[in-house]
Design brief:
Helix content is about 45%, strand content about 10%. The chain has 13 helices and 7 strands. Helix 2 (about 45-50) runs parallel beside helix 9 (about 210-225), helix 4 (about 75-85) packs across helix 13 (about 275-300) and helix 5 runs parallel beside helix 6 (about 150-160).
Length: about 325
């Protein structure tokens, strides 16, 4: 018996994100990706489930841990990997790197390394869509570390006041870098949304289907004029906060916690819903896609230093030469 297109699509999304992240970590270790990355491993169900509820013209904003969101929204893995490797063929010509990927043509308005800052961008995009008479929905992905940031709370307030078509998605993996949610968040995360009258729910962020169901309800409500929603996705980050941990080895999680957290794997959960033959076909297709992506990225040129100051100013103004001395 064949799985539904939705179940296969969700499996392909989580498998692609997982293997992309693992291949990217390999390139960090080889030195082909300079500066490291924030791996999304373990949180794949959230990006896959939310983006499966969206239309092509809907928009998203992302975070410093954004590869999964970008891939789930449809970005070319080869160009994403080239961007991580700082190559001229990357999504943003190698200028954005791991934390600032964007593709306006796909509705990816940009990842953002400033914690919580994308919330205001999302509210602005939703307001602009409504002013234009469009029924696009805007999604803001953020972590538990962002829920006490003023800009995010201000964005929620405006979204609620103006009934904007926004879906706020909190990826609660339990840690803001090394700080636990219990040590950082008074009250609850859903309580932040409820304080503004925003419908807020908590879902199993390790299950792509559960995330999709919650996201679809919120997206349909927003598109119909019902205003914003908040979905808190409980998840667990399998890998380091940032790949620098592979060398520094900070001790803020013990081995038993990590082992327990890895027991519910989004790839395995969704894979169990897809017959083995279909699953094997998806796995083979993903590996081939990523083999090509690695070859494309590493075979691409680095940006020409002559153009280092291009795109900095709308007028094309160049910076003044520095004074000697």
């Amino acid at each position: 018996m064949k799985a539904s297109d939705t179940e296969v699509g969700l499996y392909r999304a989580v498998r692609l994100i997982r293997r992309f992240e693992e291949r990217a970590v390999e390139l960090v270790r080889s030195g082909d990706i300079v500066g490291g990355i924030h791996p999304y491993t373990g949180q794949e169900a959230i990006a896959a489930g939310v983006c499966a509820a969206l239309r092509e013209d809907d928009v998203i904003t992302s975070t410093h841990r954004g590869h999964g969101h970008v891939l789930a929204k449809g970005a070319d893995p080869a160009r994403v990997l080239a961007e991580l490797a700082g190559r001229a063929t990357g999504l943003n010509r190698g200028r954005g790197g791991s934390m600032h990927a964007a593709d306006f043509g796909l509705g990816i308005l940009g990842a953002n390394a400033i914690v919580g800052a994308n919330g205001a961008i999302t509210a602005g995009a939703a307001w602009a869509a409504r002013q234009a008479g469009a029924d696009r929905v805007a999604v803001s992905f953020f972590g538990d570390g962002a829920v006490n940031q003023g800009v995010l709370l201000e964005a929620m307030n405006l979204a609620a006041l103006w009934r904007l078509p926004v879906l706020f998605v909190c990826e609660n993996n339990g840690y803001a870098t090394t700080l636990t949610v219990a040590d950082a968040v008074a009250g609850t995360i859903t309580g932040r949304g409820e304080a503004f009258g925003i419908p807020s729910v908590t879902v199993d962020g390790m299950d792509p289907r559960a995330v999709l169901d919650a996201a679809r309800t919120a997206v349909d409500n927003a598109r119909a004029g019902g205003g914003p929603s908040l979905v808190e996705c409980l998840t667990y980050r399998f890998d380091a906060h940032h790949t620098w941990e592979h060398k520094a080895r900070p001790r803020y999680r013990d081995d038993e916690e990590v082992r327990s957290g890895r027991e519910r794997d989004p790839v395995a959960i969704q894979g169990a819903r897809v017959p083995a033959a279909e699953r094997d076909a998806v796995d083979a297709e993903v590996e081939s896609t990523l083999d090509d992506a690695v070859a494309f990225a590493l075979g691409s040129p680095h940006p020409d230093p002559v153009g280092a100051l291009d795109h900095l100013y709308a007028t094309g103004t160049w910076a003044r030469p520095g004074g000697g001395g």
